[in-house]
Amino acid sequence: MDNIAGLFTKPENISSLYKRLIEFTGDAVYVYSIDDGKILFTNKGLPRILDLDSTPEELTGKYLKDLFVYTERPGTIRDLVRDSGEIHNYVYHFKTLKGDEKWVLHDSFIVEDKDTGGKFVEAVVKDITEQKTVEAELLKLKTNLEDEVNNKTQELINAYDKLRQAEKMAFVGKISGTVAHELRSPLSAIKNSIYILKMKLDLEKCDPLVTKYLNLLEREVDVSNNTISNILAYSRIKEPLFQKKNINDVIRETLNSLVRPENINITWELNPDLPEVDIDEEQIKIVFRNLIINSFKAMIRTGDLRISTSKEDHIIRISFTDTGCGIEEERRKGIFDHLFTVEKDIKGFGLSISKLVIEKHRGSIGFESEIGKGTTFVIKLPVEQKL
Is the alpha carbon torsion for 29, 35, 37, 42 positive or negative? Predict the structure, then answer.
């Protein structure tokens, strides 16, 4: 055993062993001039990695810069070796002369010829293209999986929100009739009592405070009755009964049914070439009425309301733009929640009902607002309902 081990300590045997290792290794092993990149020696690995139909002997004497397409500045590796004396595990990307992309792991160090003083670079390069391809595929799969998980998570959140909304609707529907009966009876009694008191009292001779609080009480009864009506309206929104309708005609009919304030100017920009749309006309009129009334209320003294329609692909776009007070930043997040209107002291279900109706039409409703300049509500409805 000692004799066998001794064979590998003899210089001639070691030299032969290294030569065979260099010759048969799958990696590229080569030596080149640090001054100009001229190849002085290479094994079979270099032409294989560079995808060249050349022998090691044919590559000897050629310049590295002529054998592949750089993706970094030419001479980058040579400069790194010159500055530090050696580099290890340097990942390098390039293209072969045939246009194929390659990734390699590069190790090299400077060797000085003691006789001539010349400096050379010995390099060992490992082809890691397959590894990089696998890593890229894994990263792609990971990204796709994350996107899929995120999409499914969002679908679950949306489904949960719809379930909660359905549960709320069921609850509101269940109690709305009872609430309406239980509250409207005493409210009617209070309103009748106010009416009788006003009939019996000489309001011109009464204490002004009596008149003030009777009027206040009557106004609050009206607000309460309005809230009850909104609750009933919200709970009674059914599944739409779709029919082909001209959306411009629906807008005109809605406006004609409302009392227009004299201080507000209304302009139209209705596209006459719109196709008929699948809608529940009565439900859509509720939405238009809510938005128009909100615009009226937002323009206290005077203002302009512009209503426009247009078509984008298979979507009809309806916008209502007013020059009112705008919606405060802190109130925008909950604008489609229950009990929100543009008037701070009055509660209503108008925008909540509008959102519910538009969603049942598989559309969307959004808004943009600027304090002191006004608000634009935009409704988008599909031309056809795919049932």
Answer: negative
Every domain of the chain and the residues it spans: 2-127, 138-236, 240-382
What angle, 0 to 180 degrees and rounded to 10, lies between the N-to-C axes of helices 208-235 and 129-200? 140
Question: In the chain, what's the furthest Cα-to-Cα distance?
Answer: 134
Please tell me the chain's helix, strand, coil percentages from 3-state DSSP, rounded to the nearest 5: 50, 25, 30
The helix or strand, by DSSP H or E, that contains position 93, with its residue range, turns out to be strand 86-96
Predicted local confidence at residue 349, as pLDDT: 64
Class of domain 2-127: alpha beta
Mean pLDDT, residues 217-230: 79
Contact between 192 and 219 (Cβ < 8 Å): no
The whole model's pTM is what?
A: 0.49
Identify the pLDDT of residue 173: 65
Contact 82, 34 (CB under 8 A): yes
pLDDT tens-digit series, residues 322-372: 998 888 887 777 777 654 444 544 344 678 888 889 998 999 999 999 998
Q: If you average pLDDT over residues 145-170, what whole number do you get?
A: 81
Question: d(Cα 291, Cα 121) in Å, to the nearest integer?
Answer: 78
C-alpha dihedral (216, 220, 226, 228), degrees to nearest 10: -160
Pick the CATH number of 240-382 from 3.30.70.3300, 3.40.50.720, 3.30.565.10, 1.10.10.10: 3.30.565.10
Q: Which helix (H) or strand (E) holds 87?
A: strand 86-96
CA distance 78 to 65: 11
Q: What is the mean pLDDT of the chain?
A: 83
Query: pLDDT value at position 10?
Result: 52
| Closest by Cα among 223, 224, 227 to 172 | 227
